[in-house]
Inverse folding.
């Protein structure tokens, strides 16, 4: 099992994956600073 | 979130199984502007078409994170007229996380889903009765108050 969340960084890729897996996207806006 | 919630094993498994996780900096144009991001952390449940279904602003501990995510997944299905799938998620939230701040909204949407699926208005009356007895001070009880007349 993964020991971290494998966040996508690109919206276009996330939407393609969402369509392929028929799952919603969890969009996390964060403050990397 | 990065220090407490996301490293939790339950959260990792839950997110990987139920979502496509996407992390974006709060000032990344154009997405931060498109989604009107004013504070972090902001978590949004998006549909496959990019439509927003649920939003949470501020820190969530692991328990609240799962409750909020279940509600978001339920709303994702509800907004797409998939009431059976939505019901399953609202029921999950209500039964497994009864102390959650998100339960009152889930009770409301469960009743609406049952009504939309069956056409039986008694489900709406039941929404008000359940909310008024279990969550008398919730905004969702006020929103359901017209249903007491059904």
């Amino acid at each position: 099992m993964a020991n971290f969340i494998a966040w996508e960084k690109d919206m276009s890729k996330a939407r393609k994956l969402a369509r392929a897996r028929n799952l919603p996207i969890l969009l996390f806006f964060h403050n990397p600073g | 979130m990065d220090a407490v919630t996301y490293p939790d094993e339950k959260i990792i498994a839950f997110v990987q199984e139920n979502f496509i996780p996407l992390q974006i900096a709060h000032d990344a144009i154009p997405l931060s502007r498109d989604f009107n991001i004013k504070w972090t952390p902001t978590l949004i449940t998006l549909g496959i078409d990019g439509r927003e279904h649920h939003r949470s602003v501020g820190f969530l501990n692991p328990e609240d994170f799962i409750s909020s995510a279940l509600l978001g997944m339920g709303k994702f299905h509800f907004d797409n007229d998939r009431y059976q799938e939505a019901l399953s998620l609202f029921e999950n939230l209500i039964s497994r996380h009864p102390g959650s701040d998100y339960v009152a909204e889930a009770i409301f949407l469960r009743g609406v889903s049952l009504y939309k699926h069956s056409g039986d208005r008694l489900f709406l009356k039941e929404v008000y009765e359940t909310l008024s007895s279990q969550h008398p001070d919730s905004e969702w009880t006020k929103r359901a108050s017209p249903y007491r007349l059904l």
